[in-house]
Amino acid sequence: MATGFIYHPNYLLHNASISHPERPDRLRAIVVELQDSGVWEQLHHIQPQPAERRWIELAHSAEYIANVEAAAQSGSGYLDPDTHVGRESFDVALLAVGGGIAACDAVMLGQCRNAFAAVRPPGHHAEHSAAMGFCLFNNVAIAARYLQHQYGLAKVAILDWDVHHGNGTQHILESDPSILYISIHQHPLYPGTGLRNEQGTGQGIGATRNIPLPGGCGDAEYAVAFDEVEEAITKFQPQFLLISAGFDAHRRDPLASMKVSEDGFRQMANRALRLASQHCSNRLVMILEGGYDLVGLATSVEACVQEMMSAE
Known about the structure:
By secondary structure, the chain is of the alpha/beta class. Helices cover 39% and strands 14% of the residues. The strands form two sheets. An eight-stranded parallel β-sheet has the order 2-1-5-10-9-6-7-8, with helices on both faces. A two-stranded antiparallel ribbon has the order 3-4. Helix 1 (25-37) crosses helix 9 (294-310) and helix 4 (89-108) packs across helix 5 (139-151). The relative contact order is 0.15.
């Protein structure tokens, strides 16, 4: 069974400026890399549809959704100092959420073994009622809640290896004991959250696991951190594994100072796939987050997709 790949050319329409790190060239680079390597032809290609608002409301307030729509309709502007919207941005953000949902559907319905959703804008900084850090809607948090509502899954795990802490995902899910959120990230770094003592709130205490690492860490340090990921997921016993797949911990990335290589991301993908095999009936979806050096991003995505294709 093939690996699913979710992409839509309309993802390129959300555009801040040529100089903005989160730019359309990110997805262009990924597509070219996969095509040039011969991987593209081996994938099961899935074209997503815009998400219905009822699914977005699983993670965001109706008022916030309306505010994002109004900001986009008004033309070019910023929802926070880093987060741009243009006239197409709201529709593209709906399509990004739809990409995560399409990936989950394809895996749950047995149309592919696992899936990679190459979407933008990214999502893990978006909080319940606030845009942050290039993110409008929290694609991975919505996907987790969608899996529970649409398919009745009791437990879902999210692993976030983006170099920046996913404050939005944590904020949305921190009181929910049915979704495990684990983040490996550089600290200190934007947005400044993600300390070890942030372990959830209320009934969700213990379902948030932060693994902050100092700048300069590479493949070896991430491998040690992944031991803790394996322990947490094995204890939690999820039925589906979602990955907030950011590639800005790459050694070439301009927005952080980690030293992870393409092979380091490949090894993390391999270990995540083994966890999905052991605990989740092989159900695994990666949803793209950050990664701002075009070469580092594209080659790391290819390494992960190759690993997904070779999974047993």
